[in-house]
Amino acid sequence: MMKTVLCYGDSLTWGYSAESLGRHDFADRWPSVLAAALGPEVTVIAEGLNGRTTAYDDHLADCDRNGARILPTILHSHDPLDLVIIMLGANDMKPVICGQAFGAVQGMERLIELVRHHAWSFGRDEGPEILIVSPPPLCETANSAFAAMFAGGVEQSAMLASLYRDLADEKGCGFFDAGSVARTTPLDGVHLDAENTRALGRALEPVARMMLGL
Amino acid sequence: MMKTVLCYGDSLTWGYSAESLGRHDFADRWPSVLAAALGPEVTVIAEGLNGRTTAYDDHLADCDRNGARILPTILHSHDPLDLVIIMLGANDMKPVICGQAFGAVQGMERLIELVRHHAWSFGRDEGPEILIVSPPPLCETANSAFAAMFAGGVEQSAMLASLYRDLADEKGCGFFDAGSVARTTPLDGVHLDAENTRALGRALEPVARMMLGL
Amino acid sequence: MMKTVLCYGDSLTWGYSAESLGRHDFADRWPSVLAAALGPEVTVIAEGLNGRTTAYDDHLADCDRNGARILPTILHSHDPLDLVIIMLGANDMKPVICGQAFGAVQGMERLIELVRHHAWSFGRDEGPEILIVSPPPLCETANSAFAAMFAGGVEQSAMLASLYRDLADEKGCGFFDAGSVARTTPLDGVHLDAENTRALGRALEPVARMMLGL
Amino acid sequence: MMKTVLCYGDSLTWGYSAESLGRHDFADRWPSVLAAALGPEVTVIAEGLNGRTTAYDDHLADCDRNGARILPTILHSHDPLDLVIIMLGANDMKPVICGQAFGAVQGMERLIELVRHHAWSFGRDEGPEILIVSPPPLCETANSAFAAMFAGGVEQSAMLASLYRDLADEKGCGFFDAGSVARTTPLDGVHLDAENTRALGRALEPVARMMLGL
Amino acid sequence: MMKTVLCYGDSLTWGYSAESLGRHDFADRWPSVLAAALGPEVTVIAEGLNGRTTAYDDHLADCDRNGARILPTILHSHDPLDLVIIMLGANDMKPVICGQAFGAVQGMERLIELVRHHAWSFGRDEGPEILIVSPPPLCETANSAFAAMFAGGVEQSAMLASLYRDLADEKGCGFFDAGSVARTTPLDGVHLDAENTRALGRALEPVARMMLGL
Amino acid sequence: MMKTVLCYGDSLTWGYSAESLGRHDFADRWPSVLAAALGPEVTVIAEGLNGRTTAYDDHLADCDRNGARILPTILHSHDPLDLVIIMLGANDMKPVICGQAFGAVQGMERLIELVRHHAWSFGRDEGPEILIVSPPPLCETANSAFAAMFAGGVEQSAMLASLYRDLADEKGCGFFDAGSVARTTPLDGVHLDAENTRALGRALEPVARMMLGL
């Protein structure tokens, strides 16, 4: 029977290109690479929103960027799900949002709770597995707008992988450190170029396969 | 270049089966049929949420069912889009939501405005084409819970096709009457069985193809 | 010392013209007529929003039309106030909003409470006088969109004047029946033409003057 | 060990007196009677809010009357709980709120789901038992304000007991029909006089005792 | 006649035990101690919510933790009230919430205003007395999760007593410094053990008695 | 034909006097000075709210202070508009709100987008010109309450003029540096005395005249 994977993320999942200031080609985005690798028996849903936070409001946008407020709707739209991959936290590094690695961890914990306590349709008790992916650490950039917007983010984001790993262990979730296979571009210090986003998709395949029992 | 189609709808798009009280198989849902027909050069995104309304709150749910509040987020997640297919209005027929065909038309108008005034990323002015699809009219049912929940809906929903057609003309949108190719099941009076949801997907292919310029 | 009057209303206060489908000339709107009549020692603030309700949500709009949610902000912006004239209720007649004269009365009561319990700046205890104005009753119209949008409104709106008068008496507010000097236009059944909106401004002068102690 | 019972309700639980237009004496309110009957080993928390609905917004009030929006906060404040008694639905009978017995049932179902999916502190999985209490049917009244506010409520509220009983059975909740021991006063058609509210407290004792395993 | 006291607080009022990671026994919580001391002629309502802030949003929780948004509902539920004891501010010390003593003072001022401008039922003008209680200062802890969550809180919370005292004087409220009789436990740096929470209840008795005119 | 100018601001536009702790006389507020200078052919609307931010929530107030949430309503109330003057950002300097000049710039950008994407009534595409006015830099003050509330604001606000100028250039808006003609008073470090607010009105006349094509 077909399995379904939800990729819940931000611009790193959407496929923002710091070079073209547009969106990476479909084939270059990590959810597409993962989908191709997993084959036709798995539906992979890409739900990446530029600027999405874990659980913080951002009134600077013309849509709801609080990941915790939108997640229940998305879980219902794509129910039944077998695996939810959550890669969020980069936007939490903005000082006007939160600015602290510890805050992103608390937000991620909230998202896990939302999945675990979700009222799945038709009374099913069993929910999907959860895979937490820490975004690659921010790097220094000459782009002054991004440097200002993410002030302090290089240091804070470097702590995310280890904190997310502990959280995943505590909550019985899978964990993957995107920084182990991908690096952010110095063009803006936050995003992934095409090669790095593809690398992430390839690296997630075995983890997803294992968690899906394939 | 790849084209992208967003299918924004409710349980008729999600694929609710009144027989199994679960979800239709992937291959039977109309967005899947449409995707298969359009081929690999078109990405079709299925965004069907059980209970979604056009623009009305429904506090009976554990997620946001107001189609107008969620649409901007979804438009950003899947930007750039070439075509947005909106099939909503059935849940507006519930008296506790709205209960009037005219109310669904006003809600649909709001959704059109949201697409037209959306702030597309990177300053693009051009948005997607919009195809309005009127849901098939509700039919009588022996299911007393659904009959009560949608009291008056048989009469009101019968007016939707003609009202939506006028709105689409006025606003320069495409229009398709799902009732011309699909019938709701008497099992609950609202939903489509597998054959009818497949029929809808097949019927939408030529319309979508034309609007996409394929 | 200068006195300040706030005119808090809907399209009848904004000056919607059913003929031009635009806005009445500045000089024809009732707040302008009232301002001219009261002279330079009184500042008259026109705060009319198309579609504003007394205290009901309207998610069909791209802004907040719930009069009760916005009023506190407006009271602060124009503090200190000597008189608040509230003419609302016509949009409550829409069945998707409320559809009942009694509901408009309850909404008006809520607005009165908001003024009475407002936390005036700098600890002043004394708030402004309140003048309740019942909108002129809706009339029959050949405009089918408006007829549908306000179905039942002719009967319901005819009850507003007497219900508002009782409420004003009970709450110690002033009252004026706009229907005593102005009639809605059959062009859409709801709005006032230029002559009728001017008539309302002229008729409000003595009431406002008395309530302002001028 | 001490047991805790939460009484979540509206003015019938608060103890509104249609005679004094104030609050019944502490000893006359049904939660107090129940507490006295259950003895010092049971803490009974009275959480009755005038105007509270099951799950519908009421913007006519200066506080949040939507029972579904406030319940999670109250569940946390009084956690750990052994029994939640929910007596709501009378205010749903107001046409500006919902006006339909079937709508109240849907709202009650939402409240049950909120208790069942609540994230109890410290990772406990086990939540409290739920006892659904249908409010006594509204009766005819000469009070014109209440008659208008609850138009149609006599007929609709008469259906609540049987609909709530079915819901309770389906969801595995306890059920008690308050109309079997108490009658609403013709003074306003909605509320209970002191004798009737005491009677309700007495009648709930054995049910509560059984559900608490005492 | 019976007097009523509302204790509006956070986990210090709820009775969170850093030792058991559960809730203190009923008899050990300060509102229970206060109730026992005041005797049967006074009803003491314990409204402590883990994580409650003065007036700041916390989207990390599954319920509304903003004290200012919930207070009006609670005031109505327990109306008529003779005394409101507010002990909040500890959670404001979290950097993701506010992180500044001055911010807690502003939040406390907002809560005072909400009580003062509350629309008491049945048109009563007179509201309850207000007693501001500053939470005991945070202390150093080896618990790394709490240390991170409340980074900077030791210094900031030490300023609360003096700032709250000034605010209480300015606003005509009573004031009590909980730090004068209770110390936070080094187990997590924030909470009170059973002995300290009991001590607080005992110490509040004479203040409450005086403010209640007993 | 009459032109309309909307002045959207905070206490500097409302006319808060740090001396009287009240409101400057009508004739001294900058919108009044501007109106007098522009003459009877231009309607100038003063919409200044104490505490208004660009796009940040402030739950310490009893009304909505988030400039981005209220702006669409105000744009509709005063439609059609020829020029919108936005002078905001001072309240963003409060650490509990945002505390960073860069955050105010992002908020201002959001306001510009709201004007540009606004759905003007009757299908007009053309919106008003936008004039960004940077508030005069905060100065040191002996007022300890204001010094605490705006900690760090002297440095941050000094950056606003240059950042707003760049934003205005990028977005095709007009720009005026209020600090070039007005200074904040050391009485509280934030506000303008009567002479300085008049000076601002006089200085804005030629800019407004040019942008209005007068």
Automatic annotation (TrEMBL), chains A, B, C, D, E, F:
Per the database entry, which stretches of residues form a coiled coil?
none
Which part of the chain is the SGNH hydrolase-type esterase domain?
7-193
Entry superkingdom: Bacteria
Tell me which Pfam families the record gives. Answer: Lipase_GDSL_2 (PF13472)
The GO molecular function terms of this record are: hydrolase activity, acting on ester bonds
* Family annotation (InterPro entries): SGNH_hydro, SGNH_hydro_sf
Question: This protein is called what?
Answer: Arylesterase
